[in-house]
Each structure stands twice: as C-alpha cells, then as structure tokens.
Design goal:
Blueprint lengths: L30 H8 L14 H9 L9 H12 L10 E7 L11 H4 L8 E7 L11 H15 L7 E6 L8 H11 L6 E5 L5 H9 L8 H4 L16 E4 L5 H15 L8 H13 L2 E2 L19 H4 L22 H4 L4 E4 L15 H7 L8 E5 L3 E5 L3 E7 L4 E6 L6 E5 H11 L11 H7 L3 E9 L8 E5 L4 E5 L5 E9 L4 E4 L29 E2 L3 H5 L1
Parallel strand pairs: 1-2, 1-4, 2-3, 4-7, 6-18
Antiparallel strand pairs: 5-7, 8-11, 9-10, 9-12, 10-16, 11-15, 13-16, 14-15, 14-17
Length: 545
C-alpha cells in the first residue's frame, strides 16, 4: 500500500525500517499484516516485535526474497555507524569476525577506510570464526591456525596496540565463546560500545545471538531483544541491531568464574538427557564444541492466572465461549537501565567482491557454504589428470615427475570428480548444470548465463609426502591442498568462473591434511575418507583423553 508512510520501527531480525509501501524494498510487511499490527491501541509500537517478510521467509522457510539493495549500501551503513561521535569519551572496540575458511580475508585491509580518522577506534579484537568446520590435521592445529590469522592481520596493517587480541571460536557450536566473553570483560570491561564487523557469511549475526544469551549482555536482554535473523544468504542483516552490555563488576566476575569452575568439573555422564542430546547434535555439526552458559539470569516471577467464572460457565444448550487470547505484553527496558548503557552492535556484512557466491542462486549457496564438519577428500593424481570441484573449480595436473596428492576441503555436498585431461572439456560441457556436477544447477539455460571458467597457471615445488606445499583456493567454493614429493616441480592449471578470485595460499592452512585419510580405493584415484573425533572443551572427560 504506497499510501501508508514508513513506520519508524526497525525489523527485529535484520534492522531494516518496517514498511508496506514497496514489496521489493527492505523491511516490507504485507499491508494487511502491517495494518493489523499498527492500528491497535499501541499504534506503530505494535510493530516493535515484528519481522519483515524477508526475515520471516528466511527463518521459517529458508527462502531468500530478492531485494533492490546495492552492495555499497551495506558498506555505507557500517561506515556511518563507525563515524558517529564517540560516546562515553572514547571510540568503540571493533570485534572483527573473520571466517577462517576465507583466509586471506578480503575486507580486513579495507577496515581503516571505514573509520573516521578523527575518531580512532580503541582497538580491534579479531575473532576467527568457524574453526569447528575444520578437521585437526595434526596436534596443535589451533595454535597454527591462530598464527595464520595473526599473520593475516599483520599483512593488513593490524599489529601492536591496535590489535587487542585474536581469538578462535565457533559461534555456532559455542567453542571458545566463554573465553571470548572473559577476554572482553577483562580487557574492555564496559568502557564503550562494541561493533561486530565482517564480511557477509562470516557468522556475525550468529555470534551476536550467542553473546545475547551469554554473560556479556544485561540479564534481562534476552527477554527484551529478539535474535538476529541468520541464514546462508549473503547480506541478511541490513541495518544495526544491538543489545546492552553488562557491567562486569568484581562480584559478577567472581560469580562467573565460580560457575565456570563448577562446570569444568562435569563429565558427559553427569549431563542431563537434554544436555546430552544437545551435545550430540553439536558434535555432528562440528569438530569443536563448547557450552555457553549464563551466570546472571533474572528470576521470572510466577505468572498470575486471570480467573473469569463467567467465561467458563455456560448452559447445556450453549457451546463454550472462546475469549480471544490476550496478547502478552512485551518486556521493555526502563530508562534507568539503558540511559548510560554501552551497546554491542551487529552491523550489515560487507559484500565480498570477486566472490563466487555472488553468482549463485539461493539453493546453490546452500550447497556451497559448509554448515557441518568438513570431511577431507584426498586423491592421488598423475600428470595428465584433472580434478573437478562441482562445476565451480578445476585443477589440471600438467607436468611433474611423480604422482601428487590433492586434498579437497569444501562443503560435503559438493561433488569431486577426477578424470583425464583429454576428457575434461567434454565432461564439463556435458555435465555442467546437471546432477553429475550439481552446482550450478538448472541445465543449459543456467549455464548460458553463468561465467565461463578461466585458467591460471601455477608452479609449485614439493616439500615432502606428508606436508602440503600450498592451497589452491577456488574463490569461496573451497580449496585443494597440494602435497608432492620433495623437490618435485609441479605445473598446475587451476580454473574458477570469470570474475572470481583464485588464490594460491602459502603456507597452507592445514598442511598435514593429506594424512587424514583412509586406505586407497582399489582401481581409483580416491582414498577412503576419515572423520576425526569431535572435542568438547571444559568437560573433564575430554581433558583426560
């Protein structure tokens, strides 16, 4: 209904202003629903708990609605927020959420350009997210992962006093989150606002939701503030979302430490059936799991039942009368609770340029983005052989003295196919867009509009049969770790869709990944897959292993 003005109320899922004027614009709510919510006694405030149609579709049906939203708009919202005048006498702390699968992070070097030079940030704490998806290729792999993230920060100009810390976490499974909360409360306390920044799909909104249910926010916040909408579709968050940060007084820190000590003495056998069920679910999702608890939970008063005898009494000739259910009154913060509050903000993800995800449909994105623990797939190739990762990437082994090992780290849903150089073009022409290669999907019509694969020649020298020399990162579709005999020189040709980034990552992220494999499958280039066990932090049973 174009005649109805915008509400001035933000969607509680993505932050866009709710409106019913334009179905293709952010914050759209169908006019009938919009009017039923806004025409009550509360007026526009009746929309306060509502979500827009886009968030509703994402949350309940996993479908993304197309929006006329230029990628630059996400960057403008973030930059405008970071250039606000400092509150409480100091600039904000930036919590930069980095997807470890995407190293080197394409946006990290651009971070200084988003800030106001006259209002410098108090520092940047980098959070390496999604570590639960990566298998441990050797003892101490997390220490090595952290070193890789620190090196990426230094390369982007983040070092010294500007870099507060680097933490490795899984916002999804909770691994490392209690340590992150303790670090924030110990170093930043409640000194100023905190902004979650990062690229699309880095896991900012998932981290925002986890922190909202942790000791980092005020105890009443989960009852007042709705969770952010989370989906695999890039750019879900459209505007700022926020919750108030709790003041970590000495008493609160002491009580929190006591809770953490008590929980650390538990074993899996001492967990309740519900806790075990949840833990088993998380173990299936990732290799690294942690529990995020709450020390400061507000005790809810028992609800008072309204008893209306007239509503319950009726004669034998009457049907029972169903009175309309009263809408529960939404809790709100009082003025005193938030007048001096420091806030944690979730910001829109910055769109990655030259990213294959920008070329994909919603269904294809779900196939490409890994959501569960990645199982490495290793193949041994001779010169003249080719490896396909779906129809999104290809690696040709052109020259070399001996066979080499190619380990694929990508979504378990993406197929990997090995063929000969002489058959590779025919296989791509026949099966791209079809079930055999899966992504892209949609047949010949889809492939007519999809960019062609373009090559890049790569020369590598082997360093041994157990250690990869480099990763060939096929944009955001995944990567191939190459392991070759000592001093063996390899000439490879890698392909990605035109307009997407192909990166040779040296040193590799998981250098010993080729050793995480089973026996060779007879008559093929493939090895049987092997899934390492999951690890649960802060449980005594795991500490003994």
């Amino acid at each position: 209904d174009p005649s109805v003005p915008s509400s001035g109320v933000s969607c509680s899922g993505c932050g866009a202003e709710l409106q019913c004027r334009d179905g293709a614009a952010p914050g759209f709510v169908p006019a009938e629903k919009y009017q039923s919510l806004s025409e009550g006694p509360a007026g526009a405030a009746g929309l306060r708990d509502a979500v827009c149609q886009r968030c509703w579709q994402l949350a309940h049906h996993g479908r993304a609605l197309g929006l006329r939203l230029p990628p630059e708009q996400h960057r403008q919202v973030v930059s405008a927020a970071l250039r606000r005048p400092p509150r409480h006498g100091r600039g904000p702390l930036l919590l930069y959420v980095l997807d470890v699968l995407e190293l080197p992070d394409p946006v990290l070097p651009q971070l200084p350009g988003l800030l106001d030079p006259d209002v410098p940030a108090a520092g940047v704490l980098v959070v390496g997210n999604k570590v639960d998806l990566l298998p441990a290729d050797s003892p101490g792999h997390l220490r090595r992962l952290r070193e890789r993230v620190v090196a990426a920060c230094a390369q982007a100009g983040l070092r010294g006093a500007r870099l507060v810390d680097v933490r490795l976490v899984s916002a999804k499974t909770g691994f490392g989150l209690e340590g992150l909360v303790s670090r924030l409360q110990r170093s930043w306390k409640c000194a100023g606002d905190v902004y979650l920044l990062g690229t699309t799909n880095s896991g900012k909104s998932t981290l925002f939701n986890t922190l909202l249910r942790s000791d980092y926010c005020k105890s009443r916040a989960p009852d007042v503030i709705n969770r952010a909408t989370v989906s695999s579709w890039p750019g879900t968050t459209l505007n700022l979302l926020k919750f108030p940060i709790i003041n970590p007084t000495c008493d609160r820190i002491f009580r929190r430490q006591e809770r953490l000590k008590e929980e650390a003495t538990k074993t899996e056998d001492q967990l309740s059936s519900e806790e075990k069920k949840h833990l088993d679910h998380l173990k299936k999702q990732g290799y690294l799991v942690g529990e995020v608890g709450r020390t400061f939970q507000r005790q809810k008063s028992s609800s008072v039942v309204d008893f209306d005898p007239d509503a319950l009494s009726y004669s034998i000739d009457e049907d029972p009368r169903h009175t309309p259910k009263k809408r529960e009154k939404k809790e709100e913060f009082t003025y005193n609770e938030v007048k001096d509050a420091r806030w944690c903000f979730d910001t829109p993800g910055i769109i990655k340029e030259n990213c294959v995800l920008n070329l994909l449909t919603e269904k294809e994105v779900k196939m490409v983005l890994p959501t569960q623990a990645i199982i490495p797939r290793t193949f041994i190739l001779k010169p003249g052989m080719v490896l396909f990762l779906a129809a999104l990437g290809r690696v040709d082994y052109l020259q070399g003295e001996k066979p080499a090992w190619f380990s694929v780290i990508a979504s378990n849903l993406l197929p990997v196919h090995v063929t000969t150089l002489s058959n590779a073009d025919a296989i791509y022409d026949k099966h791209a867009g079809q079930e055999f290669l899966k992504v892209p999907m949609g047949g010949e019509e889809r492939m007519k509009e999809f960019p062609q694969l373009v090559p890049q020649d790569i020369t590598l020298k082997g360093i041994g049969t157990t250690e990869a020399v480099a990763d060939i990162k096929l944009s955001s579709a995944g990567w191939v770790a190459v392991t070759a005999q000592m001093e063996d020189e390899l000439l490879l040709r890698a392909y990605t869709p035109q307009g997407t980034a192909l990166v040779v990552r040296e040193p590799p992220l998981l250098p010993y990944i080729s050793t995480v494999r089973g026996t060779r499958v007879k008559g093929t280039a493939a090895y049987r897959t092997k899934k390492p066990p999951s690890l649960v932090e802060n449980l005594q049973t795991m500490a003994r292993r």
